[in-house]
């Protein structure tokens, strides 16, 4: 009888390893146009809504902007607080990658703010960030396999 033993190694990939730290924020009373312009200027799909103390209060995504357009709202007159998702699902910097992916999958979101212990955003992870990381790992694994 032949027994194959596979080595299992944990690679401690944390939210802080793949998050984007240049967080783009708006205030609840900012006009919707400000949020939309920031998304276009920064080539991003969401902005975080923070209060005067810098704590996360919500998130505005491309889907929210589409809602404004579909309802024929004037984005110069409507405010971010009217369309933001309040108390968004978040992760902590030390959360592992599996936790991040599970939260995205279970809640059907594509953007997860990363917050510190005070509730202030320190980063954001998009589904694209997760995919880019996984593609890099896959590329390394394939490269190592081809070298053998």
Automatic annotation (TrEMBL):
CBS domain span: 19-76, 84-142
Claim: Phosphoprotein is one of the keywords in the record: no
Cell inner membrane listed as a keyword: no
Superkingdom in the source lineage: Archaea
Keywords: CBS domain
Pfam families: CBS
Protein name: CBS domain-containing protein
InterPro entries, sorted: CBS_dom, CBS_dom_sf, Diverse_CBS-Domain
């Amino acid at each position: 009888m032949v027994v194959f033993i596979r080595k299992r190694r944990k690679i401690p990939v944390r939210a802080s390893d793949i998050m984007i730290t240049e967080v783009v924020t708006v205030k609840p009373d900012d006009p919707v146009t400000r949020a939309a312009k920031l998304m276009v200027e920064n080539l991003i799909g969401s902005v975080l809504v923070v209060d005067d103390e810098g704590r996360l209060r919500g998130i505005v995504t491309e889907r929210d902007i589409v809602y404004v357009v579909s309802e024929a709202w004037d984005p110069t007159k409507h405010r971010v607080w009217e369309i933001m998702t309040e108390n968004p699902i978040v992760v902590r910097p030390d959360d592992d990658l599996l936790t991040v992916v599970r939260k995205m999958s279970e809640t059907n979101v594509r953007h997860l703010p990363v917050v510190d212990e005070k509730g202030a955003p320190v980063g954001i992870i998009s589904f694209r960030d997760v995919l880019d990381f996984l593609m890099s790992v896959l590329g390394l694994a394939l490269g190592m396999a081809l070298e053998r």
